C-alpha cells in the first residue's frame, strides 16, 4: 500500500510524527527541530528520519532532490502573537511569529498535496496578530490580507514625559539611553521582588556585588529627564546597602519600588521602540495625549495563512477547528487549534475529524497511570536503566500504552520539606489556592496570581487538564505524596512506554508538556489519508 512522504517542521520530541506513523500510511523523510534534547529524543524514537536543525536555513529544493516530491507538511510552529501581556515584558515583538512565516515558506516551496498545522487554541483569536512591516507590504496587497490599526502602548500615562514621543522616533536617541541588557534584567529582578517583602531582601543581597558595580554607571546627576530617573533608581540601591537602618524599615521595598519604577518603565519603552525600528515595523503615527502609543497596522496570523494558501495561485482547501484531545481517547482535556489543507485538485471540501468519545466516555487519569502507582520512581536521570514491568490487569488505555516490558522515564523531582508539607495537605482536585495561608509563604512573588494548575493534585477519576511542564507546575500524584513522573505525564499525553525521552529531567518534562498527543495526531492522519487516497 502506498505511503505518503512527510516533512515535520518544529517536530519537538515527535508526537505529531508518531501519530502519523501509527497509521502505517506515512513515511517521515525529514524532521526539523532546533532544540538538542528534543533532537536526541526524536532521533532515538524515529531512527530512519533525517533530523535537521534550524528551519530558517532549510533548503527545500535540496530535500526534494534527495527524497523526491513531498506529499505532506506537518508541524506546530510556535506563535504567541502579541497581546496586552506584552506590556509587562521588555519585548514587543515575539520572534516566534517569524517561525509561522517559515512554516508557510515550506508549503510554498515544497507545494505538497496537503499540510497540517497544530498550535495553541488561541491562534485564531484577535490577539494573535503580526505587526505590518515593510517586508510584508507587497504580500499583504497581493493576497488581500485584511489589516487594521492596532495600538502598541509604549509608556503608560503615569510615567509619560514631554520628550518621550520624539525620543522613540530616533534610533540614535533610543540607543543612547538604553542600558546594557544585563543591567536592565538585574534591576527588573529587583523591581519584581518589591511585590513580596520576604523575597525583596533576599534578591538584593543575592545580587549585591553586581548591583553596586553597575550602579556606578548610572548615578551621574543631570538635568536630562531620563538620566535623572536612572540616577534616582540606582542611588536608591546604593543607599539601601549603605544604610543599615533602612533594612529595619518594613516598607523599604515600597520605597525602592517608587524609586526605580519610572526608570524601568522608560527602559521598557525604549526596548519596544528599538524593536519597532529593528524590525522595520510601519508606524502610522505616535499618540501622546495620555499614554504614549505607537499606532501600527496588524493582521491576524490565521488570515495571513489562509489568504495566501487558499489563493488561486496555491490552491488549498482548508479547514480549522479547536480539537480536544479527550474526544480522541487521551485522558486529558487539552485543546489545540488545528489547520488542515488539501489541494483543491484532490478535494473540493475538507473537514478535520470529529471526536469519537462523549464526555461520559472519556478516559481518566486512573486509566492511564494507575498501573504505575506502586512502582517506585527514581529522582536520578542517570540511574534510569529501566524497570521491568510484570503482568497486571490494566485498563483498556493502559494496555495500548504498555507496549514494552521495560519502563523508562519513571523519574520525579526530589521533594523539598516545604513541598512535602503542601503535598500532604492537598486532596485530589485541590491546588495551591486550597492551602492554608501558612503553607503559601516564601515561594511565589504574588500568591494571589498563582495559576490554578500550580501544586495541583490530579484527580484519578476524570481526565487531567492540559499537561504542561508538570515539574514547574508541581503536579502531584492522585494518591501518593510525590510529583507526577515524566512517564506518567507521557502516559497522559498517550505516548506509549516504548517511546523514550532524552535529556535532563527538566528537559524531559518540557518535551512531554510541549508535545501533540499522538492519539489525536493519529486521528488527523487517518482522516487525511482518505483525501490523499483520492
Might you state the CATH topology name of the largest domain? Rossmann fold
Number of helices: 20
CATH architecture descriptor text of the largest domain: 3-Layer(aba) Sandwich
Strand content: 5-15%
Please mark out the parts with pLDDT under 50 across 5 or more consecutive residues, or reply none: 81-89
CATH class of the largest domain: Alpha Beta
Helix/sheet category: alpha/beta
Supply the number of structural domains.
3
- Mean of residue pLDDT? 90
Helicity range: 25-40%
Walk me through what this model shows:
The protein has 3 domains: 4-145 and 298-357 and 522-532, Rossmann fold, CATH 3.40.50.150; 157-290, no CATH class; 361-515, DNA Methylase, Chain A, domain 2 (Alpha-Beta Complex). It contains 20 helices and 13 strands. It has helices at residues 15-21, 36-45, 60-67, 96-110, 137-142, 164-167, 171-177, 181-193, 197-206, 208-215, 225-242, 252-278, 301-309, 365-369, 396-401, 417-425, 470-473, 486-492, 505-514, 518-532, and strands spanning 4-9, 26-32, 50-52, 72-75, 114-120, 129-131, 148-155, 283-287, 292-300, 316-324, 335-343, 387-388, 406-407. A 7-stranded mixed β-sheet has the order 3-2-1-4-5-11-10, with helices on both faces. Strands 6, 7, 8 and 9 form a 4-stranded antiparallel β-sheet that branches. α1 crosses α20 (518-532) and α10 runs antiparallel to α11 (225-242). The chain is globular, with a radius of gyration of 26 Å.
Amino acid at each position: 500500500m502506498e505511503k505518503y512522504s512527510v516533512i515535520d517542521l518544529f517536530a519537538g520530541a515527535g508526537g505529531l510524527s508518531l501519530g502519523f506513523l501509527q497509521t502505517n500510511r506515512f513515511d517521515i523523510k525529514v524532521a526539523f527541530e532546533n532544540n538538542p534534547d528534543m533532537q536526541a529524543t526524536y532521533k532515538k524514537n524515529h531512527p530512519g528520519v533525517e533530523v535537521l536543525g534550524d528551519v530558517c536555513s532549510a533548503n527545500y529544493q535540496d530535500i526534494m532532490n534527495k527524497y523526491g516530491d513531498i506529499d505532506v507538511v506537518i508541524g506546530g510552529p510556535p506563535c504567541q502573537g502579541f497581546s496586552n501581556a506584552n506590556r509587562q515584558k521588555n519585548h514587543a515583538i515575539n520572534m516566534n511569529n517569524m517561525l509561522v512565516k517559515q512554516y508557510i515558506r515550506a508549503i510554498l516551496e515544497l507545494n505538497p498535496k496537503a499540510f497540517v498545522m497544530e498550535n495553541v487554541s488561541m491562534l485564531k483569536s484577535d490577539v494573535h496578530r503580526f505587526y505590518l512591516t515593510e517586508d510584508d507590504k507587497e504580500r499583504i496587497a497581493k493576497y488581500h490580507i485584511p489589516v487594521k490599526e492596532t495600538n502598541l502602548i509604549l509608556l503608560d500615562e503615569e510615567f509619560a514625559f514631554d520628550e518621550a514621543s520624539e525620543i522613540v522616533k530616533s534610533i540614535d536617541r533610543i540607543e543612547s539611553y538604553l542600558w546594557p541588557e544585563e543591567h536592565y534584567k538585574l534591576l527588573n529582578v529587583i523591581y519584581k521582588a518589591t511585590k513580596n517583602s520576604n523575597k525583596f531582601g533576599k534578591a538584593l543581597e543575592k545580587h549585591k556585588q553586581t548591583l553596586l558595580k553597575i550602579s556606578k554607571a548610572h548615578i551621574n546627576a543631570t538635568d536630562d529627564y531620563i538620566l535623572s530617573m536612572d540616577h534616582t533608581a540606582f542611588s536608591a540601591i546604593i543607599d539601601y546597602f549603605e544604610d543599615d537602618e533602612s533594612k529595619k524599615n518594613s516598607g523599604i521595598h515600597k520605597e525602592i519600588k517608587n524609586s526605580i519604577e519610572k526608570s524601568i518603565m522608560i527602559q521598557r519603552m525604549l526596548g519596544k521602540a528599538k524593536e519597532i525600528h529593528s524590525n522595520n515595523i510601519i508606524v502610522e503615527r505616535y499618540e501622546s495625549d495620555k499614554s504614549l502609543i505607537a499606532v501600527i497596522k496588524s493582521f491576524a496570523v490565521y488570515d495571513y495563512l489562509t489568504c495566501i494558501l487558499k489563493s488561486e495561485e496555491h490552491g488549498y482547501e482548508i479547514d480549522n477547528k479547536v480539537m480536544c484531545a479527550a474526544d480522541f481517547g487521551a485522558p486529558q482535556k487539552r485543546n489545540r487549534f488545528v489547520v488542515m489543507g488539501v489541494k483543491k485538485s484532490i478535494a473540493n471540501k475538507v473537514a478535520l475529524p470529529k471526536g469519537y468519545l462523549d464526555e461520559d466516555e472519556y478516559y481518566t487519569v486512573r486509566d492511564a497511570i494507575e498501573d504505575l502507582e506502586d512502582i517506585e520512581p527514581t529522582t536520578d536521570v542517570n540511574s534510569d536503566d529501566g524497570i521491568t514491568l510484570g503482568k497486571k490487569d490494566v485498563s483498556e488505555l493502559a494496555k495500548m500504552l504498555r507496549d514494552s516490558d521495560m519502563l523508562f522515564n519513571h523519574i520525579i523531582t526530589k521533594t523539598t520539606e516545604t513541598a512535602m508539607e503542601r503535598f500532604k495537605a492537598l486532596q485530589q482536585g485541590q491546588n495551591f489556592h486550597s492551602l492554608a495561608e501558612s503553607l503559601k509563604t516564601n515561594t511565589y512573588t504574588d500568591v494571589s496570581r498563582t495559576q490554578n494548575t500550580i501544586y495541583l493534585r490530579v484527580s484519578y477519576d476524570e481526565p487531567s487538564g492540559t499537561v504542561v511542564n508538570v515539574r514547574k507546575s508541581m503536579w502531584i500524584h492522585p494518591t501518593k505524596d510525590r510529583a507526577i513522573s515524566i512517564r506518567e505525564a507521557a502516559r497522559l499525553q498517550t505516548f506509549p512506554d516504548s517511546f523514550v525521552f532524552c535529556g535532563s529531567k527538566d528537559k524531559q518534562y518540557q518535551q512531554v508538556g510541549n508535545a501533540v498527543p499522538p492519539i489525536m495526531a493519529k486521528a488527523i492522519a487517518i482522516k487525511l489519508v482518505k483525501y490523499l487516497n483520492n
